[in-house]
């Protein structure tokens, strides 16, 4: 087996960190306690380990291919996707009213991690479909919901997000795709969209493209963008499929990674106009698209964790098997498996600590999302929404940047074999590199963190988080163990560094925007590192308590060691980042443009 | 043009940092002053920009291929290699007695960077040949030198290093290839070697394999390894080519990067035994091989700088061309080329600063090698040898790790386009990953740094370097400019961190080897960062002096800005690494093996 889902760690995170039992006090989630979670996760693990994971390497060798407008996916994908739909996995987090299971996002996050560990390329299809479902749930009409959602939730139809155009990547103000109103209330769509993930494929009966376009006469910039449903096949009023719409895939990209996932160039309206249906109101497209994007950003962060986990497991396996050289401490007489060597251990621990820290943060943020959307108390909803929104750019930005380091270490553990494609470690390294780019680059996440999440409220949310972290520090400092003491020290230094940076960002953003934005990514790396580390500190406390109560001692011991490693090796990077942000802004933009 | 050689920066480094003019006081290098260097570098730049660089992307699309034991290289490689030989580039650093030009390694380092920037895959063939030449120069008999060196120096024959076997990667004690003495003084060689770069190809008339093998009855372990010349075609006494030797390429690897460079599995002696000639004495093979490896390690470090430079140039070009979004400081009214965005600037400056710092260190170390080998004064030779040997693991380890970060940022600057293979940025990212692995992984370099270079003399060499750095600090602190002041502060903090680590390593190495080796790679990253940073501090001083004298103001201003950026963003990472090494050793090996 090439992948074993870390179900025990998911359950630990859900129980001890995300507070899943508390979510069961919310009426919608009354049944979604630890027993349900355990059952769902075990089943999800089985499916992904046995059905999806074995297709991962095959997808790299035998990617999706394009011919005459038709995309053929990797052999096995179509059948696996059918099983995915039949198993109810697409509907996991979606409302029961449309055929879903209505489970919390906290549990969903674990399931999303599993399918992405199993196969990043395959998992992108349901990931985009999730986003399209969320957008329709929020902004679609009742008729649109009734028509489109059930087959999407069922996994018979899939969804896409059509934002990017050749001249408009991160900058959606530059979108040019045109929508012409028709007498029957529909629109004709004309334009070219690029980088459309699963924009064309053979795994579903229909594809529901959600397309950003400008209604003729709409204002310039982002205020003139509307959102349209443009199905591949026109959907009749009874839900049956009608004619082929004028939306065609003219090519797919030749990419460094996630090769099995077709990245389409879509041409709308080359044969008279693609029929589109307005979602919500005209000119509010960006707002609706942000719903999809925010869901997708969280999910892409989880993709980072997922590929890191897979790379870690592969590296551990190799390190156990590969015999090479005598350990420096003489603990083995002759040549030993390389897992005995200190630097291999350092690499594996780095991979593990970063992955577990980011996972813990994603589970906690998932539970906050659930409370933000479903808790009966408005203040609790608001507090959780604020927490969640602060974490989204960190989960997207930090977890994906982390995955670059982890997958690189994964190759490194393999030595020369890591560079040989057949070994498989290289695929994770190649696949991961898209994660810091799509759904908003790390810099775009950092802009969000600096502007909307920190600057807008003068750093209030950030400082409130720092105060919560200080409480965790106090709990750690009160424990006797060397691990807890070391953690408390490193957490304190990191938290103080965070506060310095928050004050810098909140204080200088308006007068010296370049100075602040020059440090935006280091700030994101600092904050992500700290927030994931904070969860590892909480995990350490919980693991010590569980140990004292005699629970699963090997697992809890490992959690404590991993947390201590995180503090001493990962959190230890934070103060240097503070110095970079606070003192280094001036030298970032000092170079004259023509001197580069 | 896809690559422009940074000749101005090479000349600055040779003149202001490496002290090329001082080398001309050494009789062998009397003619190798700045004028010679300028002429050689300009010519080398032209050749690599026009002939070698255009083949880089073609090599990725159309890699070397194997059929029936024959390897066909990328179209254009054979002709380019002929031009390389005809231009005298293979002989640049080699003795005039064998047809070379006898130029200093300092100048050679610049030329090696250029050819590797132009085409990492292509450059590997001469790189390995250089190593083989050095080994034969040191350990070969006069007869062997006379027979093999002239065609190798001329670029008609190439060389290889045959160390690795399936069970023996980093651990040469495990080498099993067998050598049976024959009555005529030759040996018959039997065994399998893997990962042999340019182990078979069509660019040269003959290939001189240098092969590690065990003479029948030799001692176990590394003390029983001998070095053999095993030519692809037997060489007659008059230098003409005789029969095909029993050394055959049975396959080449399918790799993530450097695809044009054939990585061969070589089978020796499957048809009766390959004829081998002992180099030097039996059982001293490892010692001779280290000559090759040390030359190759320096060169691989330069490869890291080279691919980083190429990635930087490509990213700058894209950042100038790609128009996207309005800058946050309002400096441009509408959408602007992305080079106007602060985070793009941060990425480009990071790429540039790291590359220039490592380049400066390589040039300085190259000059130390020249003095170590050719200076008339024995003490000067010794001092330079000590300096050079300390720097080799840093140049190999740090410059290549740096290249991973730089090539990753290079993709990132390109956004989604960076992930599309046709853009070309992804190739550098894939190519670079081998650099931290071959010729000794980063961990192997770090072992060398910890053991032979720091522990063995109780940290004396390291502390002497720290004292030199302190002098540079004092010079910087005495300058008024904000750049120099900032540099002095950051350099001091980094130097103090280095001293702490050196004391820790020297003090604990024997009693607690795991504790020390657990921090070996962070120590290497710290030391490499500092030593490259030290050179950037020296560059800052030299650039300010040059400015005051009215020299090339744009270049010198840019150097000062880049140095300040290095101090505030790169050197700023050092103190965190100190904490990791000094306080984090315990948690690295604390995890029970079965808990991974």
TrEMBL record, chains A, B:
<dbReference type="Pfam" id="PF02771">
    <property type="entry name" value="Acyl-CoA_dh_N"/>
</dbReference>
<feature type="domain" description="Acyl-CoA dehydrogenase/oxidase N-terminal">
    <location>
        <begin position="39"/>
        <end position="155"/>
    </location>
</feature>
<dbReference type="InterPro" id="IPR037069">
    <property type="entry name" value="AcylCoA_DH/ox_N_sf"/>
</dbReference>
<feature type="domain" description="Acetyl-CoA dehydrogenase-like C-terminal">
    <location>
        <begin position="466"/>
        <end position="592"/>
    </location>
</feature>
<dbReference type="GO" id="GO:0016627">
    <property type="term" value="F:oxidoreductase activity, acting on the CH-CH group of donors"/>
</dbReference>
<dbReference type="Pfam" id="PF00441">
    <property type="entry name" value="Acyl-CoA_dh_1"/>
</dbReference>
<comment type="function">
    <text>Involved in the assimilation of dimethylsulphoniopropionate (DMSP), an important compound in the fixation of carbon in marine phytoplankton, by mediating the conversion of 3-(methylthio)propanoyl-CoA (MMPA-CoA) to 3-(methylthio)acryloyl-CoA (MTA-CoA).</text>
</comment>
<dbReference type="Pfam" id="PF12806">
    <property type="entry name" value="Acyl-CoA_dh_C"/>
</dbReference>
<keyword id="KW-0560">Oxidoreductase</keyword>
<dbReference type="InterPro" id="IPR009100">
    <property type="entry name" value="AcylCoA_DH/oxidase_NM_dom_sf"/>
</dbReference>
<dbReference type="InterPro" id="IPR009075">
    <property type="entry name" value="AcylCo_DH/oxidase_C"/>
</dbReference>
<dbReference type="InterPro" id="IPR006091">
    <property type="entry name" value="Acyl-CoA_Oxase/DH_mid-dom"/>
</dbReference>
<dbReference type="InterPro" id="IPR046373">
    <property type="entry name" value="Acyl-CoA_Oxase/DH_mid-dom_sf"/>
</dbReference>
<dbReference type="GO" id="GO:0050660">
    <property type="term" value="F:flavin adenine dinucleotide binding"/>
</dbReference>
<feature type="domain" description="Acyl-CoA dehydrogenase/oxidase C-terminal">
    <location>
        <begin position="283"/>
        <end position="449"/>
    </location>
</feature>
<keyword id="KW-0274">FAD</keyword>
<dbReference type="Pfam" id="PF02770">
    <property type="entry name" value="Acyl-CoA_dh_M"/>
</dbReference>
<dbReference type="InterPro" id="IPR025878">
    <property type="entry name" value="Acyl-CoA_dh-like_C_dom"/>
</dbReference>
<dbReference type="InterPro" id="IPR013786">
    <property type="entry name" value="AcylCoA_DH/ox_N"/>
</dbReference>
<dbReference type="InterPro" id="IPR052166">
    <property type="entry name" value="Diverse_Acyl-CoA_DH"/>
</dbReference>
<dbReference type="InterPro" id="IPR036250">
    <property type="entry name" value="AcylCo_DH-like_C"/>
</dbReference>
<comment type="similarity">
    <text>Belongs to the acyl-CoA dehydrogenase family.</text>
</comment>
<feature type="domain" description="Acyl-CoA oxidase/dehydrogenase middle">
    <location>
        <begin position="161"/>
        <end position="269"/>
    </location>
</feature>
<keyword id="KW-0285">Flavoprotein</keyword>
<protein>
    <recommendedName>
        <fullName>3-methylmercaptopropionyl-CoA dehydrogenase</fullName>
        <ecNumber>1.3.99.41</ecNumber>
    </recommendedName>
</protein>
């Amino acid at each position: 087996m090439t992948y074993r889902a870390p179900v025990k760690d998911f359950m630990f995170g859900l129980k001890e960190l995300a507070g899943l039992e508390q979510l069961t006090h919310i009426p919608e989630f009354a049944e979604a306690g630890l027993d349900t979670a355990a059952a769902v996760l075990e089943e999800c693990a089985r499916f992904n380990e046995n059905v999806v994971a074995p297709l991962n390497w095959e997808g790299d060798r035998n990617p999706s291919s394009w011919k005459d407008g038709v995309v053929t996916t990797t052999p096995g994908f179509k059948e696996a996707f059918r099983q995915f739909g039949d198993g109810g996995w697409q509907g996991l987090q979606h409302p029961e009213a449309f055929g879903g299971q209505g489970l919390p996002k906290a549990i969903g996050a674990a399931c999303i991690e599993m399918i992405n560990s199993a196969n990043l390329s395959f998992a992108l299809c349901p990931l985009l479909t999730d986003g399209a479902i969320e957008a329709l749930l929020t902004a679609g009409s009742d008729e649109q919901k009734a028509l489109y959602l059930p087959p999407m939730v069922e996994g018979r139809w899939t969804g896409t997000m059509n934002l990017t155009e050749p001249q408009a990547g991160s900058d959606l103000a530059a979108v040019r795709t045109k929508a012409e109103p028709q007498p029957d209330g529909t629109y004709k769509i004309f334009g070219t969209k690029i980088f459309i993930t699963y924009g064309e494929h053979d795994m579903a009966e229909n594809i529901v493209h959600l397309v950003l376009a400008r209604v003729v006469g709409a204002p310039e910039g982002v205020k003139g963008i509307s959102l349209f449903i443009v199905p591949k096949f026109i959907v009749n009023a009874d839900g049956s499929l009608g004619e082929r719409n004028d939306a065609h895939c003219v090519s797919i990209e030749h990419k460094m990674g996630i090769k099995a996932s077709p990245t389409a160039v879509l041409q709308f309206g080359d044969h008279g106009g693609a029929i589109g249906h307005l979602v919500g109101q005209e000119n509010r497209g960006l707002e609706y698209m942000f719903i999809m994007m925010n869901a997708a950003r969280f999910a892409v962060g989880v993709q980072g964790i997922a590929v890191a986990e897979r790379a870690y497991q592969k590296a551990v396996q190799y390190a156990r098997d590969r015999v090479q050289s005598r350990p420096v401490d003489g603990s083995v007489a002759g040549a030993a498996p390389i897992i005995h060597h200190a630097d291999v251990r350092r690499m594996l621990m780095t991979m593990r600590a970063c992955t577990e820290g980011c996972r813990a943060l994603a589970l906690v943020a998932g539970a906050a999302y659930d409370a933000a959307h479903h808790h009966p108390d408005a203040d609790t909803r608001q507090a959780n929404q604020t927490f969640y929104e602060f974490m989204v750019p960190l989960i997207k930005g930090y977890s994906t940047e982390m995955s670059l380091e982890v997958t690189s270490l994964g190759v490194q553990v393999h030595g020369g074999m890591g560079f040989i494609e057949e070994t498989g470690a290289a695929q994770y390294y190649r696949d991961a590199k898209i994660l810091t780019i799509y759904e908003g680059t790390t810099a775009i996440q950092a802009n969000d963190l600096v502007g909307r999440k920190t600057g807008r409220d003068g750093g209030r949310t950030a400082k409130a988080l720092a105060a919560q972290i200080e409480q965790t520090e106090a709990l750690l400092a009160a424990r006797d163990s060397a691990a807890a003491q070391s953690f408390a020290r490193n957490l304190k230094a990191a938290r103080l560094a965070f506060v310095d940076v928050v004050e810098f960002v909140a204080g200088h953003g308006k007068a010296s925007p370049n100075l602040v934005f020059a440090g935006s990514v280091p700030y994101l790396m600092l904050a992500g590192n700290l927030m994931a580390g904070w969860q590892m500190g909480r995990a350490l406390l919980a693991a010590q308590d569980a140990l004292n109560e005699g629970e699963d001692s090997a697992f809890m011991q490992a959690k404590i060691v991993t947390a201590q490693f995180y503090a001493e090796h990962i959190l230890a990077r934070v103060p240097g980042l503070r110095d970079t942000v606070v003192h280094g802004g001036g030298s970032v933009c000092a170079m004259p443009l023509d001197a580069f």
